[in-house]
Specification:
globular; BirA Bifunctional Protein, domain 2; 5 helices; three-stranded antiparallel β-sheet; 15% strand; 140 residues; alpha+beta
Length: 140
């Protein structure tokens, strides 16, 4: 299990239409003594494949365009195959600090306002998403 931007194994792409649960991703991890220290993947770089993944995940075309249109448009200009790996500096710190959870040693804000400006996150969530998570908003 990885994120929705991870490319599927080439030979598994046909399974997206018939049995998406059997599709394996192009992802990798570096593990030391049972702890994941690095993680990465080859990313999807074709707009039509990325749109298919979003459809499988239940995103409407309108929501996909609103949330990820900038990325899908960029793919239309010919993004090359690309990937990455994120060394878990935060994980090393967790181990050195003797903590059992990474949340004890890292904060997740994207900028000084805690906003990811590329994906407009955090953003509003739908009633359906709140219901799925058994949450409700109180605005008082």
């Amino acid at each position: 299990m990885h994120h929705p931007f991870t490319a599927p194994q080439d030979e598994h792409i046909p399974l997206l239409d018939s049995d998406p649960g059997k599709v394996l991703a192009k992802c990798y991890d570096m593990v030391c003594n049972g702890l994941e220290l690095c993680s990465g993947s080859i990313r999807i770089h074709r707009s039509e494949l990325q749109q298919k993944i979003f459809q499988i995940l239940g995103y409407s075309d309108e929501e996909t365009k609103k949330r990820f249109g900038h990325m899908l448009e960029a793919f239309e200009y010919g993004a090359p195959p690309h990937g990455g790996i994120a060394p878990g500096i935060d994980r090393f710190i967790m181990i050195l600090a003797g903590e059992s959870s990474i949340r004890e040693v890292i904060a997740y804000p994207k900028n000084k306002s805690a906003v990811d400006v590329m994906f407009d996150a955090p953003s509003e969530v739908s009633e359906e998403q709140l219901k799925e998570l058994h949450l409700r908003l109180r605005l008082d």
